[in-house]
Amino acid sequence: MTKTVLKNILQILIILIFNNFLAQKTPEKLPKNVVNDTISKKDTIVAKKETLDDVLRTKADDQRRDIPKKMTFLNKNAQVKYQDMQIDADYISIDDNKNLIYARGKQDSLGKIIEPVITTQAGKKYETNEFSYNTKTKQAIAFNARTEESEGVIIAQKTKKYNDTVFAMRNADYTTDDYFIKKKDTAADYFMRAYYIKLIKTKKKSQIVTGPIQMYIEKVPTPLYLPFAILPFSDKRAAGILIPSFGEREDVGFFLNGIGYYQPIGEHFDLKVLADIYTKGSWNVRPQMNYQKKYRYSGTFNADIGTMVRGIKGLDDYSRNSTYRINWSHSQDSKANPFLTFSASVDVVSTKFYNNPLNNNYIFNQNVLNTQQNSTVTLTKRFLKLPVTITGTASYSQNFATGFADLRLPQMNVAINQFYLFKSKTGVRQGLIENITVNTGFNLTNFVNTQENELFKKEMWDKMQTGLKNNISLATNTTLAKYFTFSLSANIDNALTTKTLNRYYDPVKNVTVDEINKNFTGFSTFTTTASLQTTLYGMMKFKKGSIVEAVRHMVTPSLGFSYSPDFSSPGFGYYRNYYNANGAITPYSIFEKGIVGSPSIGPVGALNFSIGNNIEMKVKSKSDSTGVKKVKIFESLNITGGYNFAAKDHPWSLFSINGQSSFFNSKLTVNTSLTLEPYKIAFNPGETSGIRTEQFGHFSVQGFNVQLSYPLSSEIFGEKTDYAKKYSSKGEVRNENYYFDDDNYAHFDQSWTLNVNANYAYSKGLNRFGSKIASIGLDGSIKLTPYWNINGSTHYDLVTKELAYTRIGFSRDQRSFTINFNWVPFGQYKVYDFFIGIKANILSDALKYKDRSFTQPNAPF
């Protein structure tokens, strides 16, 4: 035993001596200025440099430390926090020797990752299957990493983090499928695959830079390749090139459509310039500007300028047409300035713009059927203490059928708010005197009717007319005998103009000549009116137990008398006479063809009548809580006419009857109008135009119109099904919601709509043979699935027995992208249009495909 103790003591001494020998170092020379009694370095404890820059915090359900290997193992709900990074995983290992943190997601029995590793750094979350991080170099490698950026997500087979700014990815997919991002589906409906991606991140923005990138739809590769892609992820707008579509057409050659550039301008503006280029000479330029200032104003400006070239120069089929469109829309926030408002709705186009065969959009939205185009710019000024409103307007109205346009520039209206002429002593206005109201205002107009090629040229300014009108209106009313309302009114119109008419017959040229004289003149007219009206009610009740319980009839009769003198008499000087080609004296107004109109011809002392009717009935109804419901027979049925006591001939006016009604729970709407001529129309043999005789009582139909509209839907032909109560289970099939019955068949609300409208119009006038228009139209849609929709519209002309404008289309909401198809199979414009594009703003201009036919003269569809 003694030997054993001595042996152990000897071993300890040897170890101590050996350790002391290893610990010794050669003393370093001290600087000369260091005093001798300074503690030498060989007696100082030297601490090793720490490999970690911060405290490494860990936690887990099961932690184990391997001291010899300097390893730490964390199992079950493992978490590591280091600086601004946090790692959550099912398993984490920490290697102090290699400065390496390794994390792995939760595995199932087959080793498949079922819960990912979640790494959070600088507020950004990353999901991976496996993750390695070097605390010394701050580089990381991740497998199957999932990174959300802006509107999309990136999933890379392998990701290497070089630093906090640069990430390199291999075999990466990018998608904006919202269902896939929110993990409602395990497969994206589309993704863009790149073999190499570099993700560059900064504090303000991040972006993806890739090499060749290919689009996959439902995991199926498509032929859509991009040679490279740069996707900026930023809340701020960024300038960039807009990718065009391309193709080839026989009539215009190869083309690039939609090539352009986007440029933000300051905080409130942005500009997009697009161009279409065709190899045979056609081109279009489309600048687009948007602007907005919060709580102040917003607007858009668009232009479309181009030239269409078809055929070969020198041959008969060659044509060259230039078109343009200028569109400006501006609106002001109502809170910005209630006393000064400005608005604009400008849409100026060339006559043939909508017929431009380079663009089918105007066919599908039916702009090609437009016959008129209007533009208006309005500035309104109100005052806090003055009862005055000043409105300045510039308007431009185009007529595509005639090629002429009406331009009013500028037009100013000054309106004085209505006021009472006499103040009430008691505070409650009674009688005719205290109820007298005055309305007045001024209207200044500069007007010209001109052709498109004369705009703002000398020819247009020579035809410009200026007119000033003032209207003063006085009105009052009172109640007579409790049931009658008596009204009086007087209107005075004053007009000034800068041009008058001088008309004469030129026997040499055998034409009537109209000379426009530039002189300042005007006229004044006045009319007075008195009216009396009341309301009468009648009720007819039926026996108890009848289906119809009662019928109510409301009648609103009105009588009015109006008077105005004959302003064509010589004393006023508003009318002159000339000898026509037959030598007969013919009167004409010197203000004819002018902007302010002409005074009326002949005296007026007319008694006018109007009878308004409303007829309803009450019928039994089990569906109504009261047991009865109201049914409108006639919502309105109005009869109007008049007799002019001052007229020398034809004192009776035309009689008009207008009615409106609705049936089938107000679904079917019917509007009718009828015009009757009380005098006999006489026709000379062989002539188609007749004259009115003095024979009263021969009532003939001069005009008739009826319009019907009925909106049909799936709800009308059956009760609406409560799918939640009827079927026990609910689920999704590729983003579409269905209800499933006991046999696992899918059901959904297969709603449909069909609007039916019909129109019949007959017009005769003084012609022997009248003309008629009759058509029926259909407009509807139906859902094939919750997100498949078919829609269309058509019109059938019952007179020509031909189909008019017809459109058929379908659309598909495919979660992250849309598909649309439109087809016009009949008529002058036979075209189709197919579009598929990504919804997300970041890819909407880059990832899209469009195919369409184009209108060509005399070409079969």
TrEMBL record:
Cleavable signal peptide: none
InterPro entries on file: LptD, LptD_2
Domain LPS-assembly protein LptD central: 208-679
GO cellular component: cell outer membrane; transporter complex
Pfam family name, one: LptD_2
Record protein name field: LPS assembly outer membrane protein LptD (Organic solvent tolerance protein OstA)
Organism from which the protein derives: Chryseobacterium ureilyticum
